[in-house]
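Blinded run. Sample ID left blank on purpose so nobody reads anything into the name before looking at the predicted structure. Input follows.
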Amino acid sequence: MIGIIFAMQIEADGILALCENNAMQIEADGILALCENKEETVKYGMTFTRGTLCGKELVVVVCGIGKVNAAMCATTLINDYQPSLVMNSGVAGALSPVVSIGDIVVGTKAVEHDMNTTALGDKQGEVSFPTGKVLFFECDAVASRLLAEVCAGLEDTKTVSGIIASGDVFISDRSKRQLLNDRFGALACEMEGAAIGHVCVCCGVPYVILRAISDDMDENKGMDFVKFCALAAKKTVRAVKEFVMHIDNNALTVNVYWSRALTPYSAIPAARRSIPTTRSTSTATRSGIF
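Blinded prediction complete.
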């Protein structure tokens, strides 16, 4: 099973419309028109929808905007549905002139740019755990590579792989965007991906981030985001469908934060697992998160 987390309903509608078990139809503009016979469960105010796409089972959920919503959603998804992969898909703002409106950024790793304990001697964005500190949460290498290949095949779409910066603020000011690029080398900013990555890495679940650029390095206003959001979301729908069709769950790696040499899932003590033993147990390699 693949779990897909979106921040907003407009980002999820296209995927929900493709789920064969949901008996949904979609209008030409990509907005959900009809919704019946689907399997929905509401947990903590979030609606988890199960269906199949390309013969593979999905769980699709809209978490709401922001890192806390995203982390709560990812934790619930992992504990209750045991996905073999978690994908965070949606839109983002550009942090570099390398990408512009309509382009795709596939995450290689993510950073919580607003995490700040620099007064204690930490780096900006560094997250402290009992076993060490993490600046970047690594995405699954296999999933990221396949996703980038799929997106590269989209018509009239530039695809770039790179770092995603997440924080609880919508950044429109060009100088602030440039600062994030200078500090972290990030290509795009949004408000959920790193929080989802944080949870997934802690739980030993592979994850990947897909973002379509909805606003560029110009002094964008809120209406610019709304205007281009639907266009960007349509691209992610096409990419997700192709990705789901080709992904091999057995090839995914497992990353866990509590070991400096990342450990295969099968070697994790049962008391520390939040996912079942039926998950892929392929050996993970060092991801460099410490």
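Unblinding after everyone has recorded impressions. The chain is about 30% helix and 25% strand.
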